[in-house]
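Encode chain A's predicted structure.
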Amino acid sequence: MTKPTQISAPISKETKELLEKHVKTTGIKKGHLIESALRYHLRALHELPADVLVPARLVLTRRSFGEVADRLRSPGPPTDELRDLMSRGGD
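Encoded structure for chain A:
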């Protein structure tokens, strides 16, 4: 195993609280959790097409937020693909 290198990165208070809670609950060391998560994320970025990755945070303008809200209120009829998927009973 290679010698560990320490990095420093600012994170939100909420993320730190989630990290602390997970570490306390599972007993996993912070360094191990961060190393695993970072490797997993970087591997996904390398191996998967960019259009299948969903960002953890979406930033919307007021206008685009309004459009999303409107579509959620009135989603329209289901597509044939969605009907097919739902009729299979979870298969």
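The mean pLDDT is 91.
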